[in-house]
Amino acid sequence: MATFATVDLVKYLCTCEKKFPICRLYLCKHCLKLRCIDCVQHEVDTPYCPNCLEIMPAQEAKLKKNRCSNCFDCPVCGHTLMTRASGHISPNPEDPNKSVTKKTYYLACGFCRWNTRDINMLDQTVATGNWPMLENPHVKRINNLLENYKLMAQVEKADRERKKYVKRRSHLYLQDKFNLSPSVMKRKGLSSFSSLSLKEGDKTIEDLEPSVPVESFDPLPNDYYTQPAALEKTTKLVHRLSVPEFQPEDVSKLHPINKHLIMKKSLRCRECEHNLSKSDFNPCSIKFKIQLTALHWVPEVRIMTPSTFTYNKETLVTLTMSNPSVFNTTVTLSQIENETDVDYCTAKVELPKKELVLASRDEPSMHVYEDSSQAHEFKDDPKLIVFRKGNKIGFVVKVTPVVPQGDVKICFLLKHEFRNTTVAALQSESKEPEIKWLEHKVYLCLGTI
Amino acid sequence: MSAPKAPVNPNLKIMAGALVCEDCELIGDITIGARTVIHPKARIIAEAGPIIIGEFNIIEELVTITNKSSTDANSGKVLIIGNNNVFEVGCHVEAIRIGDHNVIESKAKVGSKVEISNGCIVGCGCILNMNEALPENTVVYGDKCERRIQRERPPAQMLQIDFLTRILPNYHYLMKPNLNVNVRAPVKK
Ligand SMILES: [Zn+2]
Ligand SMILES: [Zn+2]
Ligand SMILES: [Zn+2]
Ligand SMILES: [Zn+2]
């Protein structure tokens, strides 16, 4: 879990030159480059309701304005409303001496205790659906406008086509002039032009009533100044803005809000168009079909303990590095030569010169490793490698701040082996996956002086 | 498990029918009404004056109810808690007075200058520390302690009280009621 806490101390440089914590980055296994949320293509897979988990096809979702028709949010606090049942005893219509219990349903918020009875909404006889919907008072106008925009778009499209045609015609004309054009071509062009103009002709843009600007407002009623404000009866701005089509001013006008749909999203590398992240189609599932988060492929650098720094004085800082791969991985660290930007580099750093070997990640034995035997196995230099535990090592870097105050920031180039296991699985003849070397720039903020 | 016998509080009055677990702290002059359920580990401290708790209340674990004098003027006043109130786990109440049918939710704090009328709900973690009287059916909710007035007050917890009266004696030692008053009608809705 530590990976996801204080994420802004260690950042990796994405291919697009933005810095992100490693848990926010993806590694495209086809380009072998880091990608971040800002430089990948986002795609909507399926809209679904976060409450009833029902999938809605994109077209239907658009028609329903991206809202679920069965689930509601509280208009006061925004929590999901629950359906509550209550029993009513009413006389039996067939036998007046007997009574029947009738179940009715209403919606209630478990958080602020708002319920549909508060606004005198009638209880329903069925548990789902059937809740009365408010009719948008402006629906006619909106439809008119939409219709108009559609027509306008069509006209514009025709216009564009014609321009294309006109251009071609001038060309034709030239050809004609030089006696190059076969007359067939000319006729063809003409016919297409006439069909275009015909299409435009049968639909004309309706004369829309222009909107009337509001020029003056009624003065505030006297009560406003003389009566104490009835805060418990007035809605707040958030209540009004959550339903822009009605904007209720009185709490009695609040109405359950249809729940917004959310979507399953997939991410795609812009360069090679391969998927970087694709979630399972089923909304109940939290699994991914494809998830190329950098955490699974790139060694993760973390700061082990905070240190105190003094200007121009060398301090030993212990960093840890863990290997996500199932293979032993060799890593080298080197200086970034031309990093002069003091925003990201305020200290000189002396890095381990030798290659560091990270043991493979082996989930079952991760917690039983003995440090000493492992250290022996990898012939670690105890001055350099402070500890080794499973797939993790602690190593020392010497940091000398070059600024008298402020944050101590260092950066280095992390070069590591990468074995593309999926490609290896495809080409099963070669048993050992091919080794590639990847380079990442790592920026650390170690603390303040 | 054997609970250590708490020293007998001479000023503690428990009506017949009340269910008070032995493993709770009751200090000072306290009267507990019939059918009120007090869970183990609740603390009721009559510091500045007596505390009178009505009927059909549920006081859950780790609830602290203190009669504190917020000013000299009201020192020695009696903290009266009405009927059908629910004090949920870990809430902290020092109110001047509490009416009927209120719910103080978990970890809520009601300060010593607050007066709670009837049908109010103080939501989880909400803190009331102003000098105020909550109007009837107020709901305080959310991290900003927003307020609204609800139309109906929270329902009485009769089923829950019946359930607890059946279950709690199986697992906890109880304090013996020491007052048998038949002034009031046994069931009050
Ligand atoms: Zn990027
Ligand atoms: Zn739904
Ligand atoms: Zn609500
Ligand atoms: Zn790619």
From TrEMBL, chain A:
Keywords: Acetylation, Coiled coil, Cytoplasm, Cytoskeleton, Isopeptide bond, Phosphoprotein, Ubl conjugation
Primary location class: cytoplasm
Compartment list: Cytoplasm, Cell cortex; Cytoplasm, Cytoskeleton, Microtubule organizing center, Centrosome; Cytoplasm, Cytoskeleton, Stress fiber; Cytoplasm, Myofibril
One GO CC annotation: centrosome
PANTHER family attached to this UniProt entry: DYNACTIN P62 SUBUNIT, DYNACTIN SUBUNIT 4
Oligomeric and partner information: Subunit of dynactin, a multiprotein complex part of a tripartite complex with dynein and a adapter, such as BICDL1, BICD2 or HOOK3. The dynactin complex is built around ACTR1A/ACTB filament and consists of an actin-related filament composed of a shoulder domain, a pointed end and a barbed end. Its length is defined by its flexible shoulder domain. The soulder is composed of 2 DCTN1 subunits, 4 DCTN2 and 2 DCTN3. The 4 DCNT2 (via N-terminus) bind the ACTR1A filament and act as molecular rulers to determine the length. The pointed end is important for binding dynein-dynactin cargo adapters.
Similarity annotation: Belongs to the dynactin subunit 4 family.
Protein name: Dynactin subunit 4
Protein source organism: Biomphalaria glabrata
Gene: 106070689
Automatic annotation (TrEMBL), chain B:
Recorded GO CC terms: dynactin complex
An example Gene Ontology molecular-function term: dynein complex binding
Superkingdom of source: Eukaryota
Gene3D superfamilies linked: Hexapeptide repeat proteins
Record keywords, A-Z: Cytoplasm, Cytoskeleton
One of the GO biological process terms: mitotic spindle organization
Principal location listed in the UniProt entry: cytoplasm
Cellular compartments annotated: Cytoplasm, Cytoskeleton
Family: Belongs to the dynactin subunits 5/6 family. Dynactin subunit 6 subfamily.
Role: Part of the dynactin complex that activates the molecular motor dynein for ultra-processive transport along microtubules.
Identification of the protein by name: Dynactin subunit 6
Recorded name of the encoding gene: 106057181
